[in-house]
């Protein structure tokens, strides 16, 4: 599922287990080929391996670009790359000092200093350092972008590629990083960021992503890593448009790959963590191999981790039963739960997850919810949006598809916080979503359509066609909406539904999918609802919402954060932005003879959490 994209879980209750990998790796190969490693096994049992099922293939090693920031990528990158911090089992954020440390050196202005450890290294042997964070700042801040991508309204294809090639366009945007307006200061192995105003979530605002030296080598034609790094620092520091244009293109595009890159592009596989990619077959599997030269605290247990892709939940169950995979976390249904419990010798756990289901509507694609379709009449468009949302059978979906897995399941009524979190009750009381949409109101929907002067409306619904539960939800939505005069058709996927979510907005009118968070930051929902933000794929714009998120960035009082989010959500309801439906029920199953000490996190990386604490059974040796 393409769901993480700096998703919208503003506050997550501590439920299970979570972490962010911190590791370092290197290679003996003089050309930096990550597929070649030293003869030393550094204590790793070379015979151990584990197979894990996942529903959507990896397609980008750039986990913070607008294109690549997705759960499908970030769960793999969790094993591949290091970071300054990670979550423990209680969702407490800890520093990984084997990669580096950070400290607040000033409150006014807010200044944060990051210092890289001697053990922080890329898998080609190049030390990780301040230039890696400097590059991420340049890409995410928006400071250097001097052109925007334009698309054909009929095909969704970029129409100004020459303009993009000539200018500077990083495919990344972070409201948090945009608060760092001054060029960061590098001193030795340290880099200091100065924020333009206080920011509540500074600890999770920025992290190491891509290897700066590789980006610079590919962009600027330098083979030597040190020389390439120097050129990159100079280009960013001096705002050299010609070089930044090349750097931006490499950062935005080169690390998007859905199969093993060609030998000439092997530097795309350079990682900063305990594993490297050693085999990758499109749409089938990706194999990660432990780096024996890793010097960090979170050492690999399994020499090889192969993630096998299967979007069919029952197909994953069958693969577990057949011994083809050892750990699964399929889309949960009652049939799936029954089936895994029937397999002898397996461990099975179920319970709510951090992902939530929702429907979002398009405001600017020329479709039925766009004011342009009614001569620019925003009220008519809102009436049509509201009418459609009144037909979505949220309670029926929960009763038929979720309660068989969790008898206590209820409708989720917040766009930004998970049920059970401190502000959930206050926010849902303030936003009015429950009163507006808890019950299907066909008569109300018909009246709104009549007021808008329309009686037949076609809605193209985007969802994952391979997902059984989404197919069932679509059928329930379709049957209900038809009673009010809506014809709901499944959107025909052009590439994969996750990519089309952001790249084919002309062709769908509503999207049914789930958001999953990668952190507990209260400002994470900013990227979903702010005008032109990274996860706002729908042309939604509300100046009040933008201003409220500006306030939220500096607010540290939990109760006041809830008040602000309640006001944000009330605007979303007033504008008929979309509806939330339910918190995901989850089913995790694994073969204890192959893998032990599995802990699942409610936020990404879910079942991959704490890979350094896994245990390998005797059967894990091949």
Q: What proportion strand?
A: 15-25%
Quickly name the level 1 CATH class of the largest domain: Alpha Beta
**Care to count the β-strands?**
18
Number of domains: 2
Named at the architecture level, the CATH assignment of the largest domain is Alpha-Beta Complex
Query: In percent, how helical is the residue content?
Result: 25-40%
List unreliable stretches of 5+ residues: 1-40
Radius of gyration: 24 Å
> If you consult CATH, what is the topology of the largest domain?
Dipeptide-binding Protein, domain 1
Coarse structural class: alpha+beta
Q: How are the strands of the largest sheet arranged?
A: 11-16-12-15-13-14
**CATH superfamily grouping of the largest domain:** Dipeptide-binding Protein, Domain 1
Q: How is the biggest beta sheet arranged?
A: 6 strands, mixed
Termini separation comes to 31 Å
Q: What's the overall average pLDDT, rounded? A: 89
What is the number of helices?
18
So what's the overall shape? Answer: globular
Description:
With 622 residues, the protein is an alpha+beta fold. The chain is 30% helix and 17% strand. One of its GO terms (biological process) is peptide transport.
Key words describing this protein structure:
single chain, 622 residues, alpha+beta, Dipeptide-binding Protein, domain 1, Dipeptide-binding Protein, domain 3, 2 domains, six-stranded mixed β-sheet, four-stranded mixed β-sheet, 18 helices, 18 strands, 17% strand, globular
């Amino acid at each position: 599922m393409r769901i993480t994209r700096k998703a919208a879980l503003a506050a997550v209750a501590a439920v299970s287990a979570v972490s962010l990998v911190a590791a370092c790796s290197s290679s003996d190969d003089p050309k930096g080929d990550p597929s070649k490693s030293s003869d030393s096994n550094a204590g790793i049992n070379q015979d151990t391996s584990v197979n894990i099922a996942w529903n959507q293939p990896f397609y980008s090693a750039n986990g913070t670009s607008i294109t690549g920031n997705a759960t499908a990528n970030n769960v793999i990158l969790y094993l591949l790359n290091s970071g300054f911090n990670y979550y423990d089992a209680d969702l407490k954020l800890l520093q990984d000092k084997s990669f580096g440390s950070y400290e607040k050196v000033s409150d006014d202005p807010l200044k944060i200093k990051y210092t890289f450890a001697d053990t922080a290294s890329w898998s080609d042997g190049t030390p990780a350092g301040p230039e890696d964070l400097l590059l991420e700042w340049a890409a995410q801040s928006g400071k250097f972008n001097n052109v925007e991508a334009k698309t054909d309204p009929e095909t969704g294809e970029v129409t100004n590629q020459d303009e993009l090639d000539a200018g500077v366009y990083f495919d990344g945007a972070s409201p948090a990083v945009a608060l760092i307006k001054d060029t960061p200061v590098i001193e030795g192995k340290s880099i200091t960021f100065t924020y333009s105003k206080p920011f509540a979530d500074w600890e999770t605002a920025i992290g190491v992503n891509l290897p700066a030296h590789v980006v610079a080598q590919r962009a600027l034609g330098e083979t030597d890593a040190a020389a390439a790094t120097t050129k990159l620092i100079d280009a960013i520091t001096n705002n050299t448009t010609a070089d930044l244009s090349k750097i931006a293109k490499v950062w935005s595009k080169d690390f998007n790959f859905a199969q093993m890159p060609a030998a000439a592009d092997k530097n795309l596989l350079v990682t900063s963590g305990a594993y490297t990619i050693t085999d990758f077959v499109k749409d089938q599997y990706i194999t990660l191999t432990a780096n024996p030269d890793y010097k960090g605290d979170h050492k690999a247990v399994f020499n090889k981790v192969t993630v096998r892709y299967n979007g069919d939940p029952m197909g994953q169950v069958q693969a577990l039963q057949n011994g083809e995979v050892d750990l699964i976390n399929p889309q949960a249904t009652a049939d799936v739960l029954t089936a895994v419990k029937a397999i002898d010798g397996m461990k099975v756990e179920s319970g709510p997850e951090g992902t939530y289901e929702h429907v979002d509507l398009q405001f600017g694609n020329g479709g039925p919810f766009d004011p342009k379709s009614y001569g620019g009449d925003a009220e008519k468009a809102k009436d049509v949006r509201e009418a459609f949302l009144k037909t979505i059978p949220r309670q029926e979906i929960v009763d038929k598809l979720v309660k068989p897995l969790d008898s206590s399941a209820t409708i989720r009524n917040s766009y930004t916080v998970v049920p059970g979190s401190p502000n959930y009750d206050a926010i849902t009381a303030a936003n009015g979503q429950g009163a507006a949409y808890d019950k299907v109101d066909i008569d109300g929907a018909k009246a709104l359509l009549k007021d808008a002067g329309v009686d037949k409306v076609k809605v193209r619904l985007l969802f994952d066609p391979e997902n059984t539960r989404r197919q069932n939800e679509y059928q329930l939505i379709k049957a209900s909406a038809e009673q009010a005069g809506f014809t709901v058709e499944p959107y025909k996927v052009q590439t994969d539904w996750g990519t089309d979510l952001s790249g084919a907005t002309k062709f769908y009118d509503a999207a049914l999918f789930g958001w999953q968070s990668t952190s507990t930051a209260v400002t994470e929902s900013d990227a979903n609802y702010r005008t032109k933000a990274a996860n706002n794929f729908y042309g939604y714009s509300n100046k009040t919402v933008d201003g409220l998120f500006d306030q939220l960035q500096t607010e540290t009082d939990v109760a006041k954060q809830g008040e602000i989010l309640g006001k944000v959500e009330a605007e979303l309801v007033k504008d008929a932005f979309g509806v939330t439906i339910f918190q995901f029920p989850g089913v995790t199953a694994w073969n204890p003879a192959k893998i032990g000490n599995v802990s699942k996190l409610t936020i990404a990386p879910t079942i991959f959490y704490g890979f350094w604490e896994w245990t390998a059974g005797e059967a894990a040796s091949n």
